[in-house]
Amino acid sequence: MRHKPTMIALLGLAMVGAAAFAAPPAQPGTVNYVEGAASLDGETLNNKNVGNATLEAGQELNTAAGKAEVLLTPGVFLRLDDNSAVKMVSPDLTLTQVELEKGRAAVEVDEIHDQNNLEVIDHGVTTRLDKTGYYEFDANQPEAMVFKGMAKAEVGDGKWREIKSHHELALTGEPNGQPLTKEKPIDFDTRATDELYNWNNLRSQYLAEANNQMAGEYYGAGYGPGWFWDPYAFGYTYMGFEPFASPFGWGFYPFGWGGFVGGYYGGWYGGRHWTNGPYYHYGNNHVARGGIYEGGFRGQGGFHGESGFHGGAMGGGGRR
Fold first, then answer.
1. Residue 33: beta bridge partners?
2. Taking phi first (over 0 means left), then psi (-120 to 50 degrees means alpha), and beta for anything else, what does residue 13 get?
3. Phi, psi dihedral angles at 229 (to 5 degrees)
4. Which of 70, 165, 223, 259 has the greatest number of C-beta atoms within 10 Å?
5. Contacts of 269 (CB under 8 A, 6+ apart)
6. Residue 221 has what pLDDT?
7. Residue 60 in contact with residue 36, Cβ under 8 Å?
8. Which helix (H) or strand (E) holds 201?
9. Is 69 helix (H, G, I), strand (E, B) or coil?
């Protein structure tokens, strides 16, 4: 759900990286992860480019046998599939627009404001993402899929066609910019996941784990919401105004959250919720007393004690 307009003033802090770790400030288009073969305007990307390379207006990000993740507005991740290409049209905070030129892309929206205008162009059709959620786009068989959230596709004459959760819309526009005129959204089974969805789920989990670590690192620092650099995972994660679950159900926490220890497991929201006060409840796992790291994460693939990442998806590695 979008926050009230009065909260947009805090976005001035959103583009500030983690000053304590001297990371470069993030901005829409910042490359946040590279896996396999990828290039930005013909220049090969690798892990050394993470946090430094930026997809600017008019530039293209391409993948071959590889994937890439790009930051858009604070709390929004664009992820490019294998053999895909996306062009940055506008990197502005109030108009963030990308064009999918080939292959597939996904967008995870964990934070969005009324002043944000977040758009994806596919096959000449502009689709605006209006709510937090998870979205996929396909340029090979042009379509917009809303797994969770709300989007609107341009149909011409200043009109837009609404696409609700669990619905997809065939994009029948033409490369000359003529929008679609006849198609209507149809229901689809969100349980029928594939490799792109699973990879996005995993990336969301890793970012949540980094967020959980950084929430402790920045305890009492008084920072505003935005992108924060994790020097252990070598990438940016997001911290918002309040605790929330990503579209895949992974928990994210704000600065100074003193009671974030508790259960931790995947799924599609799965009944997760937070309570006020010194206790924190996560799904049906357990309630833990407040205080950073007290008791640690004890769920699947989470934290354990004060020593950082242990087990689960981190495979026993990570910060010790």
1. 69
2. alpha
3. -75, 130
4. 70
5. 245, 249
6. 56
7. no
8. helix 195-217
9. strand
